[in-house]
Amino acid sequence: MTSQMSSTRHVTAERVSEWLDGDISEREAAAVRAHVAACPTCADLVNELRGQGDSLRELGRPEPPPTLWAAIEGVMDAEDARAERGRWSWPSWLAGALGGAVTAAIAVWLVVGGRTATVGLAGGAAVGGGEGALGAQTAGATGTGSDPLLVEAERELERAAASYAKAAGRLRAILDREQARWDPARRARVAERLARLDDAIVHSRGVAERDPGDGASAEMLFSAYRRQIDFLAEVVHRGSPGIEEGLR
Amino acid sequence: MAVKDPDTRMFATADQNPGMGSMTLAAEDRRNDEAALVDAVRRNAPGSREALYHRFKRRVFALAARIAGPNEAEEVAQEAFIRIFRGLARFRGDSALSTWIYRLAVNAALSHRARRPPPSESLEARVTEVSLVEGPDDGDAALRRRLERGLRALPTGYRTAIVLHDIEGLEHEEIAAVLGCHVGTSKSQLHKARAKLREILAEDGITAADVGAGAGPRRAAAIGARQEK
Questions:
Q1: CA B187 to centroid of chain Cα atoms
Q2: Which of A51, A172, B40, B59 would disulfide-bridge B45, Cβ 3.0–4.6 Å?
Q3: Residues in chain A where the model's pLDDT stays below 70
Q4: DSSP code at position B113
C-alpha cells in the first residue's frame, strides 16, 4: 500500500475508487491525497472516475414498453381464474396429447440418460453425430450409429416432440379463429409473445440436435414446448367472455 | 463518488414521474405506505397490483435491461413481476419492500442470463442503442450509448454491483442483502467494476475529457465532432 502511494508510482483506478468512497483507512487516504496533489496524471484519473460516476448517474432508467403491464396482468388474471375454478380444465384431446408426450419424454430421458452414461464409459463419441434426435428419420443412419437403444430413444424423442407440436398446432388453430374478433393491439401482443416462444423452441431444438444424447437438452426443448402450450392454452381460455371482461 | 439517486427514495408514483423528487416521504411514512400497498395486493384489491407495478416498473425494467440485456428486458421484467406478485404472500417485511423487489428482479435477470447467454456484442449493441438510449443522436446520447455498451462488456458480477450502486443508488448494505453477499464483497466488486469500466471506455475512445467532472457541453461537442468525422 505505502509503496503504491510513493511519489514514483501512480495510484490504481481501483484504489482511487476506494479513496473517493471513503473505503480505506485515514492513513491510506492521506497517502492517496498527498500523491494525487502532486501528480497531474493521478489527478486526471480522479477527475475521470468522478466524471464516470456522474455519467452513470445521468443514464437514468429506460421506460418499459406499454405492453409490459398488459402481459403481466394477463398471466396474473389467468392464474386468478385458475385458482377460482380450483382446477385447470384442459380439453380432453389436449390432455391426451400432452400426457402421451410427457410419457414419451420421460421414457426418452431414462433411456437416453442411461445409455449416454454407458456410451461415455465405453469411451465412444457415438452420440455426437450431429443429425440429431429431431432430424429423426435419418437418426439411425447418422449420429447414433448402430446402437439400437439410442436409435429407439431418438425415435421416441421425435414422437414426443411431434405430440407437443400437434397439441400446439391445434391450439393455434383455435386461436386463429378466436383472435379474428380481437382488437389489433391484443393480436399484436399475442403474436409477439408467440414469436419469442417459437424462437425459444428453435433454439432448444438446435441444442438438442447438436447433442441428441443429452437428456438435459431434450428436457430444455420439452420445457420450451410446454411454455408455448401453456401460453396458447391461457390465451385461448382468456378468449371466453368472462375472462375477456376481466382484462378490460 | 457515492451516488444516491433520489428516485429510489420516493413515494408512490415516483417511478412514473421522476420529476417528483421533492415529494420525498419520511422513512416511517414510506414503510406504512408500502405495508398498506403490500396488504392491498395480498387481498387482491382492485388496482393494487397495477399500483405496485407502476411504482417499481422502471427500476425493475432498468435492472432487467442492464443485467440480462436489452433484448431480454421485457421478458425478464415480466418474469420478475410475476415472481413478485406470487411471492408477496411470503414477504415478511424483514427488509424494505424495494430491497426485496430488487432481489427478485436481480435473481430473475441473472437466472435468465444463465439460461440464455446474450447474443454477439455487435448485434446486442445495435439493439441497445435503439432501446435504452432515447433522444437525439448528439454527443451526450453517444456517450450514454457507449457507457451502456461498456457496462454490458463488464463481467456479470461487476456489472450487477455497479448498476445497483452507481446507477440505482443502493447502499452497500442493501446490495449485500439483494445479492446475498458480504458488504466487503459488494465494495470490492464495485471498485473493480469502476476500474474495469474505465479501461473499457478508454479502449472505446472515451477520454478523460469526455467523462471528466464538469465535462458537460465540452464532451458533447467533442463526441459530436468525432462522430462527424
A1: 17
A2: B40
A3: 1-8, 85-157, 210-216, 237-248
A4: H
Question: Looking at the predicted complex, does its ipTM rise above 0.85?
Answer: no
A114 touches chain B (CB under 8 A): no
Instruction: Tell me whether B212 touches chain A (CB under 8 Å).
Output: yes
**Interface membership of A174 toward B (CB under 8 Å):** no
Interface mutation vs chain A, best among B78, B101, B185, most A CBs within 10 Å: B78
Contact A12 B195 (CB under 8 A): yes
Residues in chain B: 229
The residues spanned by each domain of chain B are 1-132, 137-167+181-229
What is the least distance, in Å, from the CA of B38 to any CA of chain A?
16
Q: How close, in Å, is residue B109 to chain A by CA atoms?
A: 15
- CATH number for the domain whose boundaries are B1-132: 1.10.1740.10
Short-list A45, A28, A27, A26, CA closest to A36: A45
pLDDT in tens, B157-202: 999 999 999 999 999 999 999 999 999 999 999 999 999 999 999 8
Q: What is the DSSP string of chain A?
A: -TTTTSTTSPPPHHHHHHHHTT-S-HHHHHHHHHHHHH-HHHHHHHHHHHHHHHHHHHH--PPPPTHHHHHHHHHHHHHHHHHHHSS----HHHHHHHHHHHHHHHHHHHHHHHHHHHHHHTT--GGG-SS-GGGGGGGGGTTTTT-HHHHHHHHHHHHHHHHHHHHHHHHHHHHHHHGGGS-HHHHHHHHHHHHHHHHHHHHHHHHHHH-TT-HHHHHHHHHHHHHHHHHHHHHHHHTSHHHHHHH-
- What are the residue ranges spanned by the domains of chain A? 13-59, 67-247
Query: B97-151: per-residue pLDDT in tens?
Result: 999 999 999 999 999 988 877 665 554 455 444 446 666 566 678 888 889 999 9
Are B58 and A55 an interchain contact pair (Cβ–Cβ within 8 Å)? Answer: no
Whether chain B has a CB inside 8 Å of the CB on A69: the answer is yes
Residue B25: helix, strand or coil by DSSP? coil
